[in-house]
Design brief:
The chain has two helices and four strands, in the order αβαβββ. The protein is an alpha+beta fold. The chain has a four-stranded mixed β-sheet, covered by helices on one side. The structure holds zinc ion. Zinc ion binds next to loops.
Length: 69
């Protein structure tokens, strides 16, 4: 379990905590995906978070570092 208080400011700024860039950061969306969400996910515009059971839901994903935060 990561320290989510570390990630929160980065998620708010949409900046990856590893590469410190916004260039490869996309939003993570939850819930049952619509056809448009599937297309956006295939195009790399969003990440699908699925149905996550847990205290912390990452809202951003860095495509370069494969990190959710
Ligand atoms: Zn990154």
């Amino acid at each position: 379990m990561p320290d989510t208080s570390f990630y929160e400011p980065f998620a708010a700024k949409k900046t990856c905590p590893v590469c410190l860039s916004r260039k490869n950061v996309i939003p993570v969306l939850y819930g049952f995906p619509s056809p448009k969400m599937f297309r956006d996910a295939d195009a790399g515009k969003i990440a699908l978070g699925g149905c996550v059971i847990g205290d912390y839901h990452p809202t951003r994903y860095c495509k370069k570092d494969h990190l959710e935060f």
